[in-house]
Amino acid sequence: MAEGKTYDWIVVGGGITGAALSYELAKKGFAVLLLEQYAKPQNATRYSYGGLAYWSGTTPLTRQLCQEAIARYQILSQELDADIQFRELDLLLTISADSDPKATASSYTRFAIPPRLLNVQEACELEPLLNQEAISGALTVKHGHIHPEKTAQAYIQAFLRAGGEMQIDQVLQLLQNGVKTTAKTYHSANIIICAGGLSRQLLKSSGISIKLYFTHAEIIETPPIDLCLRTLIMPANLQRFQLEAESTKVDELWNESGNQPVPPILDAGAIQFQDGSLRLGQISRVLTDPHAQVNSEESEIWLRKSVGKILPALENLSGTWHHCLVAFSSNGLPLIGAIPGFDSLHIFSGFSNPLVIIPPLAKRFANFAAGKEDEIITQLLLKNNSSNLSTDSQGAIIGT
């Protein structure tokens, strides 16, 4: 790196969000530095299921982004010159034995491609490992899938080939014209935070309060196995979105690190990657301290029993418990753009749902940064997305 160099953009966070955005900004000719804290990231990208819910748009904005996303993923391996393991799977949304299948199916009619209702026999034909006693039926729809870690790495390598620079370094402080890290101070016209679940704390340490939240997500990862899971399994009645909505009702609770605004939930699911390894999950736990310690033994027992009820053959597989932070917003849309009152400081985070829209939004944001008007980015900008802004005690609008 040239001494005293000033970048156009510093991107903080090397998960799939920061990697995609860095690549798109470099492609537009910007001088970009990507900063990632860990040489071997333990972030949400590393432990993601990698599912691409391109069928799940419910508004004109999200439906358009989902359509753009699936077209983008279909060419991404070729563009990035790396195999991101993009494929299409049958998603099986299990309906518990005590739930009404038709009522559950009706709650999915608002999606761009509503999943099809299956009876117990049809569901077990599609996924023979299912426990038919545990379900009253299931919903199914075609679902995209990538290897998220390989996709992030593909973006980073393409970014470096495009002239971008990357450093493994921890950002300690955000400055008006750059960032201070453990190693040095880097200067830049713009800084953009893509640090997932650590974004809130990083901004708070610089005196900026923002309505970006995080769950502690827990999964079990197995080594490659011979057993074949044919589908991606998730519960039809997902509790995570309700947990996210409930936990953000009182924003003040998030300003102290010892709080647990709502009890933890478990959505029992499983996905098998192309190498035969499985990810079984997931517990979502709302603890306002990003560094809170979680009892891994209790969590693993809870996870195994819950997944085993649906998929008995997976309950006792050899595997390792993992934990990461997953960022989300209070309104289901990502937080994007300059933080009001801090024109050089931007955010691009909160993509817990869905992962699928990251590539088109990264491309659109880079075009927007280069001066091209973009209706979708304009709609999502923090200054236009009032639910993510509030007034501080002095009456000044700050990003919160």
Task: Explain what this protein looks like in three dimensions.
It contains eleven helices and 19 strands. It has 400 residues and is of the alpha/beta class. The strands form four sheets. Strands 1, 2, 7, 8, 9, 10, 16 and 17 form an eight-stranded mixed sheet that branches. Strands 3, 4, 5, 6 and 12 form a five-stranded mixed sheet that branches. Strand 13 (265-272) and strand 14 form a beta hairpin. It is 28% helix and 30% strand. It has two domains: 6-79 and 148-211 and 331-399, FAD/NAD(P)-binding domain, CATH 3.50.50.60; 87-145 and 212-329, D-Amino Acid Oxidase, Chain A, domain 2. Residues 8-366 form the FAD dependent oxidoreductase domain. Keywords: Oxidoreductase. GO terms for molecular function: oxidoreductase activity. InterPro entries: FAD-dep_OxRdtase (IPR006076), FAD/NAD-bd_sf (IPR036188). It holds the Pfam family DAO.
